Amino acid sequence: MGAAGHGDEEQTSGYFDVGGSKIYYETRGSGPAIVLLHDGLLHGVTWDEVWEPLERKHQVIRYDRRGYGRSDAATASFSSTEDLAKLLRYLKVSHAVIAGSSSGAAIAIDFALEHPEMVDGLLLIGPVVHGMEYSVEFRERANRNNEPMERGEVEAWARNWSQDKFLVAGTNEKARRKIYDELVANAEKLKKYDAALEEKLTPPASERLREIKAPTMIVVGAADIADVKAHAGAIKAGIHGSTLIVVEGAGHLFQLEKPEEAVTRLNDFAEKCARK
Question: Bridge-partner residues for 217, per DSSP?
Answer without folding.
Answer: 123, 243
